[in-house]
Design brief:
Structural class: alpha/beta
CATH superfamily of the largest domain: P-loop containing nucleotide triphosphate hydrolases
Order of helices and strands: EEHEHEHEHEHEEH
Strand order of the largest sheet: 3-4-5
CATH class of the largest domain: Alpha Beta
Shape: elongated
Number of domains: 2
Radius of gyration: 20 Å
Strand content: 15-25%
Amino acid sequence: MKDQLFATLDTTVRSLELPNGRQSVISDTVGFIRKLPTHLIASFRSTLAEAADADVLVHVVDCSHAAFREQIAVVHQTLEDLEIGEKSTLLVLNKSDAIAEDERNQLEIEYPNSILISAEKGLNLDVLLLTMQQAAERGSTTVSILIPYSEMNLLKTIYESGEIHSRIDGDDGSTIEITIPHDKKERFMRLCGVYVQK
């Protein structure tokens, strides 16, 4: 593996189990840099466009870096430019073990909704996972639907719309319990809303 800045702009995707046992997919995009070379801007933005599909954005910042506040501002502005600045975002201040206690205390005041962690030492990773779980749950709706056998053509759409918790085939059709992210809910309800069980 080469140690070169932007040797690749590919997104790394990993599976992650949240504390409630829910399987999640984590997409790790390329890091931000100020004054990105012009020839990389389009590629950089296209990798970040994947963030539009996320239930939760987790913005990890090296809080021991001298210019981390500027980096936070650059990320925020880029997300605004991509029109996804309103997405649920967790600010994670990594390498908190590398700064003095009074600096950590100041960061907790300055960024009250942030999570201070040390990935290297495993500090507060449990808090991060729980907070990610809670944010994902706030950004979704769980419903039970009864799909008649005559409408089985909707199954592909249903399975692509969210996380399936159960499917029970009965006399009248398939009863499916599904958690749907809010950004997919409107389309889902338009196609399948008539089948939602009250």
